[in-house]
Amino acid sequence: MNGEKNSRQFFSEYVEAVYKQQKIEDYAGNPLIEALPTILETEEQVVDAFYSLPTVKAEERNLPPLLRTHVIKRVKGFIQPLPVHIKLESKISVLIRQSYLCRNPIKLEYKKKLQLLNQLKTENNVGIETVENYYRDFQSTAECIFINGVSGMGKTTAIRRILELYPQIIRHSVYNDQAFTRTQLVWIKIDCPYDGSFITLCRNVFQEIDRLTGSRWNEKYGYLTRSTSTMVMYLTTLLANYDVGLLVIDEIQNLYNAKGDPAEMLDFFVTLTNMFSVPIVFIGTNRARNLFQKNFRLARRVQSDGYIEIANLKKASAEWELFLESLWEFSVMEENLPLSNDVKEVFYNYCQGVIAVAVMLFMFSQNMAISKGKKLLTTEIIKKTADEDLNLIKPMLKALRSGNPFEIAKFDDITIDEDAILTHYEQNIGMSERVQEKIRQKKEELEGIRNKVNDSLYLEFITSGLFNSIKPDVIRKIIDAEVDKAPMNLDYEDLRDLVLELLQAEKKKTKKSKLDNVVSLEKQSLLVLFEQAVKCKQHPYEIFKKHGIIKNPITEFLKVE
For a tag site, which of 99, 121, 418, 514 has the least CB within 10 Å? Predict the structure, then answer.
């Protein structure tokens, strides 16, 4: 079946198989493994693959407020590698390759297994137990992983980052110079339906395969029967024929919403791993942990090293300190808030080390600061943001503070409409900017009117010739000061009268000042001449007469007409 469908159009991107030499002998000679990317060998390689820290340029911090709200959203792509991510990547890498060991399409044993599967598919009413008995003699190496943790700790983000290291679709055509036509789906990820129905979950897998390959299996298998055992047969057939290396099922806690026993529903997944060695990664919140504790068959599959808990980061831990320092670099504020102990204390108190909450709090706090026209983020703004925008998750944060696992398990999801809050801030900032722009326009309009009045009054009083004794710059200052403090609705004539009074007062003041200067100069000259007469031992009369201050009476009164 795989080869027959190879010529159709693919709805998703695929890569042509490129076979690589294997350093591990067990993996050599298996085209499904050799076509996979090279195994990451060091922790540094895994960190590089995970690390995603968007940057903020210095000039972006000086952008208009509304534009900075767009820059803030870049932080949603922030991923800080954690030790648990390195562990998880290694387990997924091993899980996929080990599952392909007993599914080598070159080996005769695997071909027999496929033939048996096709034979059973044609038989009616084949029970799951019967199918498992048929495959009991075949080797199975598939295991399961259960990723458990507090909502918002990036479980889904981490697994998606790891899956992106692999091409989802690999198309084979020739292997070792022999025709080898197959379509390999390295991984499939789906969400467990909200109603917890296994039938609906199978249909979701069919739809995903159709989306990736352009097939129509959901039409053929999805609604043909409501028998769970038959649906398992169809699902197993597709997973086998498309060489699915890993099945990821997120939101597994939704099985609690199923009509039947959720623990029994997990038996169907055990059947998948038993029949065709398809490993499964389950992702769920703390509530889902009870599902595995109640199902012994699945608990055996999820061995001691198959359970991975991604807990909230502990206060003052190296992971939290590194995460916070990296997050703090993504500030769009004009001034930087130092990451002091007080700031760390406040920030942790309101996010409790939950990554998603920390990122949201950092985004929302900056938005609030910008909306209030602040240049600097403060602890007061962080507290106010937490109280207003994270109000719905206060019970969850309270449970985390208590450390009580039973209280924590009550909260399956973080119910914060992140986009709505960010949009609200954008609208507020946008409205604030529009209002500020209107104010700026109004001020400019008023400034233009005042300048026009100033120029008119200045021209009128300068050209009148009435105030030539006053310097022009003084006249300008008097007019500017009076116009600035006068009400805008004051008539031009009234304003002119006010300025006229001020100029007249200034004119009198200037005239008196000049007269005082003259008198002062005369007084100063007489004193100088008097001191000169004393010094020369002459009568002051003679000195004054010599300088023309005292005139000769005979000459003055006997002038010839």
Answer: 514
Q: Are 94 and 144 in contact (CB under 8 A)?
A: no
Whole-number pLDDT of residue 33: 96
Beta bridge partners of 246: 187
- Nearest-angstrom CA–CA distance, 2 and 183: 6
* Torsion on CA atoms 390, 393, 396, 401, rounded to nearest 10: 10
Q: Report CA Rg, the chain.
A: 44
Measuring CA to CA, how many Å separate 460 from each of 486, 497, 518?
19, 12, 31
Tell me the C-alpha distance between 193 and 138, whole Å: 32
Q: Which residue has the higher pLDDT, 17 or 440?
A: 17
Helix or strand run (H / E) with residue 456 = helix 418-464
Nearest of 222, 96, 101 to residue 168 by alpha carbon: 96
Q: Which runs of E-coded beta strand occur in 24-177? A: 144-149, 169-175
The long-range contacts involving 131-139, CB below 8 angstroms and separated by at least 24 positions, are 131/229, 131/232, 131/233, 131/236, 131/271, 131/275, 132/271, 132/274, 132/275, 135/274, 135/275, 135/276, 138/102, 138/109, 138/113, 139/102, 139/109, 139/277
Q: Tell me 218's DSSP state.
A: I
Q: Describe the crossing of helices 155-163 and 43-50 by its angle, rounded to 10 degrees.
A: 110
CA–CA separation, 223 vs 234, rounded Å?
11
The DSSP code sequence of 347-393 is HHHHHTT-HHHHHHHHHHHHHHHHHTT-SB--HHHHHHHHHHHSGGG
Contacts of residue 376, Cβ cutoff 8 Å, sequence gap at least 6: 333, 334, 335, 336, 337, 369
Report d(CA 21, CA 93) in Å as an integer. Answer: 17
CB burial readout 299-331, b (16+ within 10 A) else e: bebbeeebebebebbeeeeeebeebbeebbebb
- DSSP lists the bridge partners of residue 15 as 170
Where residue 341 falls among pLDDT bands split at 50, 70, 90? very high
Tell me the torsion sign for CA atoms 352, 357, 363, 364.
Answer: negative
Residue 141 has pLDDT above 80, yes or no: no
What's 335's DSSP letter? B
Please count the residues of the chain.
561
Is the pTM higher than 0.90? The answer reads no
Which run of H or of E encompasses 74? none
Query: In 3D, which of 296, 263, 269 has the Cα closest to residue 282?
Result: 269
Measured N-to-C along each axis, helices 262-276 and 228-241 cross at an angle, to the nearest 10 degrees, of: 40
Highest mean pLDDT among 25-29, 105-109, 110-114, 146-150: 25-29
Percent of the chain whose predicted confidence (pLDDT) is above 90: 20
Report the SS3 class of residue 194: coil
CA distances from 169 to 1, 95, 174, 210, 276 (A): 16, 18, 16, 12, 19
